[in-house]
C-alpha cells in the first residue's frame, strides 16, 4: 500500500507545478498512484494545477465509490481555494468526509456497490448509471444531521455543513432523473431529457431546483433554454423558480466570461478555438431566443464572451495559417518525395482545421477577412505546391479543403 | 430540376411501401459530400440514372432526382464528381460496379492517402483471391473426378507439377462425362472463379468478401444492440434496436444465400453443367449476396468511426440509412412464401418511420470533419 504523508506547502507547490508540465505517461502514472490511495484528500491538491490538462488528455479514471457518488455533481466540484463558503459549489476537500459518511450510513449496501466498481472506469457511463441508480437515491438519505468525521480536519467550517449536505442530498435525490440530461448537456440538452431531469426538482422547488438546474446549466450548450424550461415546469408565478433560473444563468455567464480555450500546442489551441466559436454562437442564439437578455449586464457579458471568442479564433487562425500551412509548404521545397508524402496528411489536417475555425469564427465577425485569407492560401498552394513536391491530386485536395471544389478546379484543374 | 418524394412502385399488400426489387431500392454510393452519404443510385423511371438522397431535413424519406441534376441541390466534392462520372459511364448499376468505381477513384488519391492505400490493397487482394478461388475449384474438381484410392495424397498436399497433371486429367474426365469439350470446361471454370470469388468455399470463410461482410455485420448488430440496451435516451435506444434488428435480418437472409451457393459448389459437375447452360443465371444467384449486403459497408464504417463525432450521433445517422428490405428477398431466400414471411421486414420498415433525427452536424460547421469521416468510410467500401 502506498502511504502519503502530508507534504509541506512549498513542496506541494513545486510538485504541483512539475505535474502541470509532465508528459501524458507521467501524468497517467501519478493519477493511477493517487487513485490507489485509501485517502486521497492530500494528494488531490497535487493535481490541482494539472486538472485542465487531465481533462484534455482524457485519461481513464478508475471508478470507486467516492467518484461514483459525486459524478452527478461533477460540474460543481471546485478546488478548495476557489470555493466560496455559502456558494453553490462543493469544495473537493469535502468529498472524502461526505463519502465516508455515506459509506457509514449505507453499510453493506455501500460495500456491495463499491465491489461493483472494481475494474470499471468513470468513462464507462453505462456502468456508472447502473451502479448510480442504486447508490444516489440511497445516499440522499444517508448523510448525518451533524458534522461528519473528518470535516474540520479537511479545513471545512462546521457551519457550512448543513448547506452542503442539503445540496448534495438534493443532487443525489434527482440524479437518476437528471443523469441522461447531464450526459446530453453538450447537445442542449434535448428538451425531452431536460424535462425529465427538471420535473421532479421543479415540483420540489427550493434547494433541489437550484442545485439540479445549476449542475445542468454548467454543462449545457443552451443554458437559457434550460432555465426557461425550469420556470415553465415550476408552479406559475414562483418567485423562487425565477430566482433559481436567473441565478443559474448569471453564474454560468460569469464563469464563461473568464474561461479561455487553452491547449498545449498550436493545433490543440486551434481546435479548442473552433469548438469554442461554435459553442458561443449556439449560446448567443439560445439567449437571444429567451427572455433573459432584458438585463443590460447580462447582455454585456454575452457580448464580451462573443468578442473574446472572436479574438481567439482570429489569433488561432493566423498562427495556424502561417506556421502550419504556408510555413510548412515553403519548408518542403526540395524535400525528398517520401518526406513530402509523409507531410501531406498533416497539411490536410491543417487545412481542415483552418476551415473549422473559419466556419465558427465567421459567425462571430470578420467573414471577409477569413474568406480573403483562405483564397490567398489556396492560390499559394496552387502556385507553389508543385515546387513543394505535391502531386496534382494532392494540390487539388488541399485547395478544395481551403476554398472549395470550384476554386480547386479553377486554380489547379483536373490532373 | 425536378425533385419528387419517393413513390413506392406497385406495393403489395396495399400499405407495404417497401421497394419491390433490390434494383428498385438502388445501390448505395460511398459519397464524401456529407449531405449525400447514404444516397442510392438506380435506373431512372424514364431514362438515365436517378439518385435518392436521404432527406436533408433529417426526417424519414428521400428526395429523388436525376443524377445529372445533383449539383442543383449541393456542391459535390471532387471525389464525388469523379465517382458520379464513372457511375454514369458504367454499363449497369450494380453493387460490384459501384465498388469498382469507388476503388478506382480512391486509388487515384481523391479520398486521401489512406483510402488510396486501402484501394491498392483491395485491388491486390482481389487478384490474390481470384488465384486462390481458381485453385480451390481445381482441387474440388480433382477430388470429385478421381476414384477412391486413385491417389495416395489428397491434391492439396501433392507437388504442384502432379496437381497440374491431375487437374488436366480431371478436366478431361469431366468434359467426357458432361459431353463438353475440355476448353469449354476450362472456360466454365474461369467463369465460376469470377462467380465464387466473393462467395468463397466451406472452411475458408474469412477470405471471401461476402462471408467476411456477414461476420462483420453480425458483430456490429451485437455491438449496436448492446449499446441500445444501455442507452438512457429512449429514442437512441429505439434507433439502435432498429439498426440491430435490420442487420440481423440481413445476416439471416445472407446465411441462407451463402449456404445455397456453397451447397451448389459441392456437386461440381452439376455446377459446370449449369454454368454452360445458363452462366448468367449462376452469376445472378451468386451476386444476390452483393445486392443483399449493399449499403451495410457504409453502416459498419459509420459504426467503426462512431467515436469521432459521438455514438449517439452515429446511431441517429445510421438509423436514417437502414436499408428497407425489398419484397424480392422472400423469393430469393425461399424461406416461406406469402405475406407472413414478410412480417419481420415490414416491422423494421415501420419502425424506421418512427424516428426523426435532426442531422445538424453538416449545417453547423462540422462539414470538413464529416468529409474526413466519410473518406474513412470509403476505405471500408473499396
| Portion in helices of chain B | 55-70%
Radius of gyration of chain B: 23 Å
Amount of beta strand of chain A: under 5%
Poorly predicted spans of chain B: 1-14, 336-341, 354-363
> What integer is the average pLDDT of chain B?
86
**Whole-number mean pLDDT of chain A:** 88
Largest sheet, strands/sense/barrel of chain B:
5 strands, antiparallel
What is the chain-wise order of helices and strands of chain B?
EHEEEEHHHHHHHHHHHHHHH
Structural class of chain B: mainly alpha
> What is the count of β-strands of chain B?
5
Largest inter-chain interface?
A-B, 34 and 24 residues
Count all strands of chain A and give the number: 2
- Major pleated sheet of chain A: 2 strands, parallel
Task: Provide structural commentary.
The complex is a heterodimer of chains A (415) and B (382). Among the domains of chain A are: 1-59, no CATH class; 63-173, no CATH class; 178-258, no CATH class. Chain A is globular. The relative contact order of chain A is 0.06. Chain A has a two-stranded parallel sheet with strand order 1-2. In chain A, helix 7 (108-117) packs antiparallel against helix 8 and helix 15 (266-289) runs parallel beside helix 17 (337-361). Chain A has helices spanning 9-20, 24-36, 41-47, 51-57, 65-70, 95-106, 108-117, 125-142, 161-173, 175-183, 191-204, 206-219, 223-233, 239-258, 266-289, 296-331, 337-361, 367-384, 392-403, 405-411; strands at residues 77-78, 90-91. Chain A has 415 residues and is mainly α. Chain B has 382 residues and is mostly helical. Chain B has one domain. Chain B has helices spanning 22-25, 78-89, 95-107, 113-145, 160-178, 182-196, 209-230, 234-266, 268-277, 279-293, 296-304, 306-309, 311-321, 328-333, 343-352, 367-380, and strands at residues 4-5, 27-28, 40-43, 49-54, 62-66. Chain B has a 5-stranded antiparallel β-sheet with strand order 1-5-4-3-2. In chain B, helix 4 (113-145) crosses helix 5. The longest helix of chain B has 33 residues, at 113-145. Chain B starts with a strand and ends with a helix. Chains A and B meet through helix 8, helix 10, helix 17, helix 19 and helix 20 of A and helix 16 of B.
